[in-house]
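Bit of a strange request maybe. I'm writing a small parser for structure token strings and I need a real example to test against, not something I typed by hand. Could someone generate the tokens for this chain?
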Amino acid sequence: MKQFLFLFTLVLASASSSSVLAETVPDFTLKSNQGKNLRISDMRGEVVMLNFWATWCGPCRQEMPLLDKIHARYSPVGFNLWGLNIDEDPKTANDYLKKNGVDFPILYDSNSEVRDIFKKHQGMPLSIFIDCDGNIDSVHRGYKPGDEKSYIKTIKKLIRSCAA
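Reply from user aminoacidic:
Good idea to test on real output. This should exercise your parser:
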């Protein structure tokens, strides 16, 4: 029974978070809610977290204020958080953001062009952690309370590795 519980725990852990071996993020550019286009290749040398979300996704809405706090705390030391909204109409995202504002950039991926780049990584929300060399370090699928602790651990590790 102990072996079964241990294996079950391993399966659950791997379902939510995984490491990826140096997969380079393809370049992309999207319009942001801050009025300008943002390009991922311009972020080389800094840590980036891409967080795919939608207004219809309950866990996405639940983690949004926590992501905003993480962004506020770690952006001064080279961390960038980009929320990639995949709602079909950017107005839907804008209406949500007016009620529940965030300070980090929200990018509009209404055609899911960028989401399709990462289609092998399933889940919603989906967070992709990118190191300062532009490689995917890890991927986190879904959200449950407490996941933000693992986000912070990953962010700190990546910031330290960039400074080394």
